[in-house]
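Q: Here's a chain of 305 amino acids. Please give me its 3D structure as C-alpha cells.
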Amino acid sequence: MIAERPPLHPPAARQGPGALPRPMIEALDVVLTRHTARSQPGDRRAAGVGAGTELAQLRGYQVGDDVRHLDPAASARTGEPHVRLHVPERVQTTWVLLDVSASMAFGTAQRLKSDVAEGVAQVMGQLALRRTGALGIVRFGAPGPPRITPLRAGRPAFAALRHVLAEGVAPDGNEDASALGDACSALGRLAQQPALVVIISDFRSAADPASVLGPLRARHTVLCVEVYDPRELLVPDVGILSVVDPETGRTARVDTGSRRVRERFIALEAQRRAHLHDELRRLRVGHVALGTDEEWLLKLGRSLR
C-alpha cells in the first residue's frame, strides 16, 4: 500500500508578493536579456536551422530538399540549383525551479520567504512568455520526487504557474537534503536545448547546491535567486527561546542571552552564505539575494545590471 503524500498548504501568515508594476517588469526584461546574453550567444537564439527570416547558409540543392526554398538568383548565377536555409525564429525557453520546502514558510519582516519566491516566479513567468517564449516549472522540496510542469507557451503556461504557486508549501518535518539535486538532475535529463534556468530557493538544504549546479551550468544559463529573512542572519537577545526546524521538525531550547551563542550563530550563518556565494561565483552562476524586509523587485533589477 502506497502512503499518501502530505498535502501542500498556503502559509497562514501569507502576505503575497506585493505590487508588480508593469513598467518595472518591462525594465527588468531588458536587464534579464542582457544578463542571459552574457552566457548564451545572440538574443533569444534557437538551435538548428528552420523556417525563419535570417539566412543561415546558401548551398547546392540536394535530393529531398524542399523546392520552395530554391533561391532563383543564386541558381541563375551559378547555373546550378541552390537552396536557402534559415535560422528559426529566436525563442527564449525558461525553466523555473521553485523551492516549496517547509522553511520557505518562514518570515518575520514584510512578508514570508514564500511570498518573495511567489513574486519572483510570477515576474520570471511573465518575462519568459514575452516574444513567444516558453515556460516550464519544476517544483521541489515537497515529499516525493520533483514535479515537472512541461514547457508551455501563452496563457496555458502562466495558468500552470499560478496553479503551482497556489498549492503552497510542504508541511513541517519533511526535510529532503537531495531535493535540489534531484530537481537539477531531472531538468538536466529533460531540457536538451539551452535555456534560462531560474532557481528560487533559500538554499538551506543540507546538500551543497554548488555540487549539483555544475552539469546544469554547462548547458544552460543559470540564475540562483536566494530568498532569506533577516532573523536567519542573527539571533536577538530574548532569553531562553524554543525553536523548531521546519524541515526536520526537531526542537531545541537556546539561551539567546548568551553572547557566545549569538556570536557563534552569526559566524556559522555568515560562513554558510559566503561559501554559497563563492561556489556560485566559481561556477559563473548568477546569484541574487532577496530579503523579506526589502523591496525585492527593485533589488532584483539592480542586482542583474
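Q: Can you summarize the key feature?
A: Residues 259-282 form the longest helix (24 residues).
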